[in-house]
Design a protein that fits this description.
The chain has 227 residues and is mainly β. The chain is built from 4 helices and 10 strands, in the order αααβαβββββββββ.
Length: 227
């Protein structure tokens, strides 16, 4: 820059973007590389990062679950959570294979929660009770992984973005916590959908190290009048 150079503090995303645009070299501390680096095979050095990208979706949310067998990879599923604000942005990753999704931590002490979830319009479920089911497998769960069903309403409180970063304190979230059996186990979580609900989010979460495998997700509305 004219007049010399000077240090500038920026977010991780902004810093990486500027480096790519300007062709600037990047330097990373050894402890960070030891925790987050992954081996890359082949000429495509960005392959590991592309595996975490959210595939493009239609601008309008659908009304029914899609790609529940993960035959189209992570299409319709999103990787998100508090780790995007609390950590480096690379604390967790998500992949698919053999009809299952895998949500995994990148190191022994990842920052925040991670969710692999699908987001749909709630119009077809308003005023009804809904159960979300799925099979999970994790060797060391310790109540750090499980299913999540979130019911969003206009103007609803979101403590996870306010004073507390813990999604477990948000009343819009409903959880089924997994136990570490090492075998595929079926779980379910049920919630009443209010008349003003505008969206449903359902999927799997991980809060800490290790990984959780996820398959056969089902979102089932109860018949009217039944709980």
């Amino acid at each position: 820059m004219p007049g010399g150079t000077r240090p500038v503090t920026a977010s991780l995303a902004d810093g990486l973007t500027l480096a790519v645009i300007g062709g600037a070299p990047l330097a990373v501390d050894d402890p960070v590389m030891d925790r987050l680096a992954r081996p890359v095979t082949g000429p495509d050095l960005l392959s590991q990062f592309r595996s975490q990208e959210t595939p493009p979706r239609h601008l309008r949310r659908g009304f029914e679950p899609r790609n529940t067998a993960f035959t189209d990879g992570l299409d319709r599923w999103q990787l998100g959570g508090t780790f995007l604000r609390q950590g480096t942005g690379f604390d967790y990753s998500a992949t698919t294979g053999d009809g299952r999704a895998i949500l995994a931590a990148a190191g022994p002490e990842p920052a925040g929660f991670a969710f692999l979830a699908q987001d749909i319009n709630a119009d077809n479920y308003r005023g009804r009770t809904v159960t979300f089911r799925g099979e999970l497998r994790t060797a060391e769960a310790d109540d750090r992984a499980g299913l999540v069903l979130r019911v969003g309403s206009p103007g609803g409180s979101t403590p996870a973005r306010a004073a507390s970063p813990d999604p477990r304190e948000d009343p819009a979230n409903h959880f089924a916590f997994a136990t570490g059996t090492g075998a595929w186990t079926r779980y379910e979580v049920t919630a009443q959908i209010p008349a003003d609900a505008d969206r449903l989010m359902f999927g799997v979460f991980l809060n800490g190290s290790g990984q959780v495998e996820f398959r056969h997700p089902e979102l089932t509305p109860h018949p009217p009048g039944r709980q």
